[in-house]
Amino acid sequence: DTQPDSSFSPVLNLLVTERETVPRSPRAMGGEAARYDDTLGSDCRKGPNHGRCCRHSMEVVFKDVPGFEFILQPYKFNAGFCKGRCPPRYHPASQHALLQSLVWQMYRAPRPCCAPHVLADIEVL
């Protein structure tokens, strides 16, 4: 029998989100005039905290990724990536990241890495 076993179907689970930047009032930002670096396609603020962890754009074209050529739609999406310093208690991705940042201050654990804390599904065809 040359028919493939229908109980084994390929499955692809992608957990991503595309985040919209909502303008905030100067009061909500502690009086700091936040400007976002659009040249990098990011939500990173320019200014004194510019080196802190933030989301940068990362466009993924499925046909260019080995093993994902079968995806017809969407053709591409912005997967994003996190980059930057993560000072203690600065937007921890999880309770574990918060704990690690506090323990790191006592020099008993590695410095926490920045990571996304909100993920969402996308529909693919």
From TrEMBL:
Keywords: Disulfide bond, Growth factor, Secreted
Ranges of residues in domain TGF-beta family profile: 24-125
PROSITE patterns recorded: TGF_BETA_1, TGF_BETA_2
Localization of this protein: Secreted
Pfam family, one: TGF_beta
GO cellular component: extracellular space
InterPro entries: Cystine-knot_cytokine, TGF-b_C, TGF-beta-rel, TGFb_CS
Domain of life: Eukaryota
An example Gene Ontology molecular-function term: growth factor activity
Sequence similarity: Belongs to the TGF-beta family.
Name used for this protein in its record: TGF-beta family profile domain-containing protein
Source organism: Graphocephala atropunctata
